[in-house]
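## retry 2 of 3
previous attempt timed out at serialization; input unchanged, resubmitting
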Amino acid sequence: MARDLEAQRAMNSEQLAQRVKMGDHLDIARVIEHFALFTGRKEADAARAQLTAEGFATSLKRSGWSKFELRVTQTATIEAHEVDDMVCRVFKVIERNHGSYDGWGGPLAYPPTLGGTS
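## retry succeeded, writing output
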């Protein structure tokens, strides 16, 4: 779990480098998921409302006895500047509402094959 935004940015760079090694095409849009944990329902609901207002899709579920997990999604490409921008927006809302950002992920994306055969 990233403790601050700069640490998260460093993790973004590492994740993107690994994705490129696996053949991911960062310029192809896909659903990106962000995760955050909250100890209070009120704070989780506030973050959810703010992120929804910013155009993200959200879902909230109880995680154990005393935590709430917020899932935030958006379809986007994941080129470095776009990931940093998106993560910064989500991270700041989570932090402002006393939550803990737990990272992001999404599927690898490959261009369609020509001719429809592999």
